[in-house]
Specification:
By secondary structure, this protein is an alpha/beta fold. Helices cover about 50% and strands about 15% of the residues. The protein is built from nine helices and seven strands; from the N terminus they run E-H-E-H-E-H-E-H-E-H-H-E-H-H-H-E. Strands 3-2-1-4-5-6-7 form a seven-stranded parallel sheet, with helices on both faces. Helix 2 links the parallel strand 2 and strand 3. The protein is globular. The two termini are about 35 Å apart.
Length: about 240
């Protein structure tokens, strides 16, 4: 994917950072994003020292203005956008009866609205080029649900329906849209979970191990490539069998 231009949202750590690094190592020019301008500038410098073509944009993609600035940076820097990875997401876990409206709204705004705004801004460039890859990061809980995550599960399920619709609307423009649904991936977020919870999760995974951020990044790399040009509207589950 030499000289392809990629935008990866929520890419200052964890899965998003692994995706940005993997795409960069394979020749893509990558725009990375975080709400924190200080942090994203630091990560940009780190990746540039690795020899990657990377620029960072510190904006909040919950808003249309923030998403427009992110996509415009890719256009100003490298003339357009070929690959959009909607990875940014948060969780605000609580059993449904205890879940307040703020926790519901915050998760929906980041996980769904942010994806909508970024895709809306990016797809115009893709349609002009008649080539594009939209890769949206969902979760196995978008397929199965999960106690304490009504907001998160709803948002992740929404990503799937949204993506399937994009695949149908933009296929004629040679733009593919696919979903990756990770299972239990080792990140800073999962590191904070109690050992008891980790053990319970491990017992449910047929492969008896947790996934890595690189496992997800490799799937993104494939879906972003020319080799995946006839794959669209699909949900690719990267979970070691957890959803089974």
């Amino acid at each position: 994917m030499k000289d392809r231009v990629a935008v990866v949202t929520g890419s200052s750590r964890g899965i998003g950072l692994a995706i940005a690094r993997t795409l960069g190592k394979n020749g893509a020019r990558v725009v990375i994003n975080s709400r924190s301008e200080e942090r994203i500038n630091s990560i940009s410098s780190e990746l540039q020292k690795e020899g990657l073509q990377v620029v960072g944009v510190g904006v909040d993609i919950q808003t249309r203005d923030g998403a427009d600035k992110l996509i415009q940076k890719a256009i100003d820097e490298w003339g357009g956008i070929d690959i959009l990875v909607n990875n940014a997401g948060i969780n605000r876990d609580s059993l449904f009866l205890r879940m307040n409206e703020e926790d519901w709204e915050e998760v929906i705004k980041t996980n769904l609205n942010g994806m909508f705004h970024c895709t809306k801004a990016a797809v115009r460039s893709m349609t002009r080029k008649r080539w594009g890859r939209i890769i949206n990061i969902s979760s196995v809980v978008g397929l199965t649900g999960n106690p304490g995550q009504a907001n998160y599960s709803a948002a992740k399920a929404g990503i799937i329906g949204f993506t399937k619709t994009l695949a149908q609307e933009f296929g004629i423009r040679n733009i593919t849209a696919n979903v990756i649904a990770p299972g239990f991936i080792e990140t800073e977020m999962t590191d904070r979970l109690p050992e008891k919870i980790k053990k319970q999760m491990l017992d449910r995974i047929p492969m008896q191990k947790f996934g890595s951020c690189e496992d997800v990044a490799e799937m993104v790399k494939f879906l972003a490539s020319d080799e995946a040009g006839y794959i669209t509207g699909q949900v690719l589950v990267v979970d070691g069998g957890l959803a089974l």
